[in-house]
Structures are given as C-alpha cells and as structure tokens.
Amino acid sequence: MSTSMEQLYQQVILDHAKHPHGRGLGEVAVAEARTAQSHQVNPTCGDEVTLQVDVDLSGVVRDVRWEGQGCSISQASVSVLHDLVVDQDLTTVDDLAGTFRALMQSKGAGLGDEVEDKLGDAAAFTGVGRYSARVKCALLGWVALNDALIKTGATRTKEDA
Amino acid sequence: MTSTLDTAVPQGGAPAAAGTLGPAELAAVRADFPLLARTLRGGRPLVYLDSGATSQKPEVVLDAEQDFYVQRNAAVHRGAHQLAEEATEAFEDARARVASFVGVSPGELVWTSNATAAINLVAYAMSNASLGRGGSESARFALRPGDEIVVTELEHHANLVPWQELAARTGATLRWIGVDDDGRLRLDDLATVVGERTRVLAFTHASNVTGAITPVRAFVDRARAVGALTVLDACQSVPHLPVDLHALGVDFAAFSGHKMLGPTGVGALYGRRELLEAMPPVTTGGSMVEVVTMERTTYAPPPQRFEAGTQMVSQAVGMGAAASYLAELGMDAVAAHEAHLTQLLLDAVASVPGVRVIGPTDARDRLANVSFVVDGVHAHDVGQVLDDAGVAVRVGHHCAQPLHRRFGVAATARASAAVYTTDEEIEVFREALAGVRTFFGLEDGSNA
C-alpha cells in the first residue's frame, strides 16, 4: 500500500468509522435549546447523513446526533465533527468549520501544526485533500451541520461547502 | 433461464475459441489506444476497468476528429462551396457507418448529443403529440390518463426519469417490470404488468449494473401483442455485442458514442422509419424546417426534423470512425473476447472471501461488467484501494438507485471490461481486491 493511502486512511479515521461517536438520532436532551435537523446526500456515491443539532440560548452547541451510511471517510468525519463541536460556542464552531474546509482544500499539504492542533482528530483528514473525489465525503457532515445551524436560526449566513 | 437472445451472443465461460482475439491481435488493439499506455501515481500502469462508464478511444477516432477540423471543417447541409460539400459528406458518411453498424438505414438514425438526449427526444415527442402537435399522424404517440408507460426496475436513470416526467405531464401511469435475486428481469411480469393500457415499453438491452442481457424478443413480442411502442436502451450492448436493431424488432433505440470507443457529445436515436416520419419535432429552429413563414412552419423529413441547430459534426465523424473500427475487428470476435473476460471477472470476484456479486454469477447471457459489494467496506473505500493499485473501477449507484435499493445496498463497485481488456489486467484487479478487507483490518481478508 502506498504512503498516500496510509495518509488517507489514518488509524484514527478507521477507528472513528468503526466506532462512531454521536450516532443515533433522538429526542432533544437539553431544555430550551433550539434544535434543527439536516439531511445531506452526496449524489455521486449515495452517501447520506442526517444530523440534528441543539443550540442553547447562550449560543453553545449542546449536542449533535446523527445517522448515516457511506464510506469510512464520510462516516468518520461526522464522528470527529461531533467530538469537536459539542459544547463549543458558535464562533468557535464557525472557525472549526472554516479551518476544516481549508484543510480539505490544501490538496494534502496541510495547514501547519499550529492550525491543525485545534482540529484535534480532524487533522487526520489532511491526506483526503490529495484525492479531490473524496473531499466531498469528508465535508458531508459539515455541510449538514451548517445547514442545521441555519435552520436553528443561530447562524445567519450560508457558507459555501 | 433458457437463452432467448436475439443477437449472436457467445456462451460465456467458453475458452477463447476461433473467432475471438488472439494474443497478437489483442496487443495490436491495445497499441491503438494511446491512453492505455500511461501510468498513474507512483508509476503504476493503468488497469482500466471502467469502460462501462466510458470507453477509451483508439487513434483512428482521434485522427478522424482532428482530420475533420484540419481538412473539412464547414457548416453541413448548407452552403454550395466545396468544403461544405465535403463536410456534409463526412457527416452523412458517419451516419451511414453507425446505422450500418446497428443494422438500420441512415434515414432512421438521428444524431443526438448523447443517449440520454435520445431517450428524452422520444419522451418529449410523445409529450408534444399529447398536446395535439403533429396532427392526426402523431396521434399514435399521444398519451392520456389511463394509459400506461412500463419500464424496468434496473434501468439507468436515463431510461427511467424521462418516463416519470412524461407520465407526470400527460397523466399516464408509470409501471415497471421487477428484478429477480440474480439481477435479471422477471419475465413473468411481462404478462401481468404489460397489458392493453401499455403504450410504451422502455427497457435496457443490458444492465449497466448487473450485466444481465435482456431477452429482447420476449419484450418485443409482448409489446406488439398489446400495441405498445418499444424503446431500447442499447448503451451497454452496442459496444460489446453484435446488435441488429431491425432483427431485434424494437421501435426505438438509444446509444452513445463515448461508450463505443467514440467521442463524448454524440449519441444516436434509432427510430423505425414510419414512426420517425409520423413523430412531431422536439427541439425546433434552424436546419429542421422546410418552409417557414411568420405564421407557421413545415418540417423537414427525418432524420433532419430532429436535428435542429448546428450539429456535433466532428463528434459524429469520430463516432463513425469508432463504428468502423469495431466492425473491422468484428463484433463476433469482440463479443467472444469479452465473454472470456466475463468469466475471468466472475472468477476473480468469487475467489476473494467476503465479496458478493450483484447480478448473475453465471457468465451466460451476461456482459463483462461485474458489480460487487465487499462485506464491511463501503464501495468508495473499495475503489480507493483498487485505485492505489492502478485499477480504475466505478463506485456508487451507477445511475441506478432503484436497482441498488432493490438489493438493499447504497453503492457497489463495478469492474467493466472492453475489447482492449486483458487477462493480466483482471489478475491485477483480483490481487488488489484480495487486499481490500485486509487493509481495513477485517478478517478473512486473505486470498483463499
């Protein structure tokens, strides 16, 4: 197997794909939270994700729940997203989303350790950027999150996916 | 199923016999395709097993397009100068080559931008007829509530969505023939689903997912018995089998240039002459008229009636060259070679534990496009591992979502061969496939 394949399928990605975090839709757990749901499909391969997000009145993401089916990259990416954004305020979430999108557009070059550190496990997706056909897989969950946040009314602008 | 095929389909699984391509001929064929010699990331040779999506092009096709622009480029069917004559001759010569390749007359072959456009042309002509366009001659194409359009559950979206839309526009009802567990059409459904209300029976000649070849005769006989028009999606069959559309007896057929070694941007619609003559136009404008006044227009006879606007001349010329190239190889030899590849592909997939074919596992009446799922590994990830070995396969739903739903899978990987595919390439594919489950840390990943 080539080095670029090992960089693409890092162990942390395979682990998240096998044991995803935040999986399973359900009832809102937080009182007085605004909740919304988004269903996103990648029409080229049929990958799907349905994501629910709860935002409390102070603008903090209190929970993310999701269901989906698709390749390891898309499923692991939603799992990592869950870990990153839960309990973060919307400014931080926007920053994380923008940074992850920039990472995907870096064509595998990465963004440097300092920037990647704040992405936690999501930094393991650096190698995905080298395969343009897979970038959409990695972004599917983030597109769903952005759409769901807009529906909650907490985020006003629609970012380009 | 007993073989009720109408074309001379060689029996799959037979060893390479007389009439197939020998090693020297195959090497010569490969040398005609410049792209097959290129390497990929890491210097790996390309193993192109995605011909079901689009085929590679031989030099004669590339040269034909180039030669048209270098030597003959002019507007066709207008102008009295020598270049215009030569361009028109090249355009019509290509039409004659493609028509002859599928056993029809040039006047029955309409150029379209692709096969999807060809099917839509029929659907929209019926729509226009349903609005009363084309007068009494066109009444036979008119649909109304109570009429039925029948398709099949394994159609490519190109032979499903246009009929859904036609049904929605006319109030007709869409029904469909089911698929059995082997990925073949349920012939029993012909008697129950196709009936007196059926006006159109649209079906594929060969599934782009399961590879199963449709027994066209049974469909045509049933359609004729109830007075329905037949529309055949021949995209997957024309590049791989000898196809004689007159002998098949279908009313319409669509196929594309790019899957049969020709360029993109060009396809063809075959229509039985008397039907094309009675059918109202769809796209209107220049080149498709007889007399135009400010009040009304009379239309040119087919095929020009359906070829409004400037045509894709160089692509048509390229498609004509592709048809000639295949005809020179001989479609019996092409089909025999590919029947051998079908068996190799099925054997390769069967040799790897944890891999399941979606479609017939018997090479009989089946093409060399084999779709499969790897237990525990998504098709996209399968494709990535194969790509790392230089093996190009298609992953996803292959524009056939209902069929995938029928089999309870969201996506499959598909290896599809063509005339230039070799035994060695299928072995590279097999070895790479055997490593997929191992790479993702699943048991039984080793080659049994």
From TrEMBL, chain A:
Example GO BP: iron-sulfur cluster assembly
InterPro entries for this protein: NIF_FeS_clus_asmbl_NifU_N
Pfam family, one: NifU_N
GO MF annotations, alphabetized: iron ion binding; iron-sulfur cluster binding
CDD domains: IscU_like (cd06664)
Domain NIF system FeS cluster assembly NifU N-terminal: 9-137
PANTHER family in the record: IRON-SULFUR CLUSTER ASSEMBLY ENZYME NIFU HOMOLOG
Protein name per Swiss-Prot or TrEMBL: Iron-sulfur cluster assembly scaffold protein NifU
Origin species: Cellulomonas algicola
From TrEMBL, chain B:
Entry similarity comment: Belongs to the class-V pyridoxal-phosphate-dependent aminotransferase family. Csd subfamily.
Keywords: Pyridoxal phosphate, Transferase
Organism listed in the record: Cellulomonas algicola
Function in brief: Catalyzes the removal of elemental sulfur and selenium atoms from L-cysteine, L-cystine, L-selenocysteine, and L-selenocystine to produce L-alanine.
PROSITE patterns in alphabetical order: AA_TRANSFER_CLASS_5
Highest taxon above the source species: Bacteria
Biological-process GO terms, alphabetical: cysteine metabolic process
GO molecular function: cysteine desulfurase activity; pyridoxal phosphate binding
InterPro entries the UniProt entry points to: Aminotrans_V_dom, Aminotrans_V_PyrdxlP_BS, Cys_dSase_SufS, PyrdxlP-dep_Trfase, PyrdxlP-dep_Trfase_major, PyrdxlP-dep_Trfase_small
Reaction(s) catalysed by this chain's protein: (sulfur carrier)-H + L-cysteine = (sulfur carrier)-SH + L-alanine
EC identifiers of the protein: 2.8.1.7
Residues in Aminotransferase class V domain copies: 47-429
Entry protein name: Cysteine desulfurase
